[in-house]
Amino acid sequence: MAKTYFAELLPDGPVYYPSALDRYWIEKGRHPYLINLDGVPIGFALVWNHADGTHELTEFTIRPDHRHQGIGTQAAHLIFNALGGDWTLGVATHSPGGMAFWEQCLSDCENVCEITAGPPKTAQQIGCFTFRIERP
Description:
It is a single chain. This protein has 136 residues and is an alpha+beta fold. 26% of the residues lie in helices and 37% in strands. It has one domain (2-133): Aminopeptidase, CATH 3.40.630. It has helices at 2-9, 23-26, 71-83, 98-108, and strands spanning 30-37, 40-49, 55-62, 85-92, 112-118, 125-133. The longest helix is centred in the middle third of the chain and has 13 residues, at 71-83. The mean pLDDT is 90.
């Protein structure tokens, strides 16, 4: 699933290296999430905790045949609320509708506040968001 995801977001490279994702299962402060529907994997999310405590959603995908059904929004909300705190996420240039998706997803997320859209952080991004998840 990761190979297909990275080919979609980075059609001109770099080459996909599965070993680059290994750190999410072995390094402290990294959280891999598998998104399932009826027990079948249909997506994944990778979260990296920065030294200052900010969570970064580094990767997030739902298989194309399961998009536009609310599954990604529901999964994102569960992840954000599970960890709480301050967040950042970048939106890939080759993610059609990505900025609109994240703007709507964050606006609809219970407990989210201080949403700020910003410029891209890398050459592969179209923009980014920072926000906070408040604990009730």
